[in-house]
User: What shape does this take?
Amino acid sequence: MTGLAGPRVRVLVVEDSAVVRHVLVRLIRDDPRFELLEAVETAEEALRLVPMLRPDVISMDVRLPGMDGLEATRRIMAECPTPIVIVSDSSTDPALRISMNALRSGALSVVQKPAGWPVDAAGGAAIATQLYIMSQVPVIRHRLHYGAVPVQDVGPPPRLRPRLVGMAASTGGPQAFAHIMGALPASFPWPILLVQHMGMGFMEGFAAWLDTQTRLPVALARQGEIMRPGHVYVAPAEAHLTLGLSDEIRLSNAPPLGGQRPSATALFASMARVGGGAIGVLLTGMGEDGAVGLRDMRRAGGYTIVEDRSTSIVHGMPGAAERIGGASISLPLGQIAPHLVAVASAAAPLPMAVGMEGRGP
Assistant: This one.
């Protein structure tokens, strides 16, 4: 023991590069919060050790000899659920695709692979922080179905006349977004602004990956862009995504809100000005980002949806919104897309702002 308040976090490293494996081992051994259980080169060896060692968290490479990190994640989440942090090279497309699919299969977060030793302070801190935080997340066997029960027969307020949707998530967000976006029809009538907490270097790859999971066009948001119906606009790394006064996209490098940039609260607060023209959706995630902004939206007449505890990987963000009165309704993940489609079918059409009308795909 090290004199810390609790036991050290027990870490299993899975990495085939001897250089990167050495760096990760050094980072873990030099941090008094951690205990290194083992560092292995293959997914097959990891699968053998996980049920014996029972690590608190796994650092998982994605491009491994033999079985890759995606299949290893699937197997671990099915057989011996354990928090997994993907350590990936953000500059290579194959690694990015595997990383994003691993997140959908149950991994909790992704961080950039260190280039060598010594690691810069920010990079080392990012890896250590993710390993420590994710070790605290209680995981269960990866669910293939979310809330497979009839959609609640709850209609939106009569004054609701939506023209755009904002969505936000943190831990568990990629798989939640993929599930929702994959269930929305190509005819979905409103633009969607999306905030996902994710490390530097991964947002462009995340947007490209999400574009393959849905019939809606997905891309990183651009400053001043006029939103188009049925398009999804993803907040870039280290920029707040907000709604401009003429319903255009605004990106800002203003200081982080609650430690987050992009911030869900910044997005939702900017959407509050359109009142009943806005729908906000707050999904799984640690912390409380988005809760205050969602409350602002609801108070202004917008319609706000939070993910139910039963399907949230981490119920921190949606739970915080519920506690302060920011949620119009709480729904399991599997019910959110059908509910949005039902709202779209029932809502009275609202003329788009100047510049939005007639700008379909």
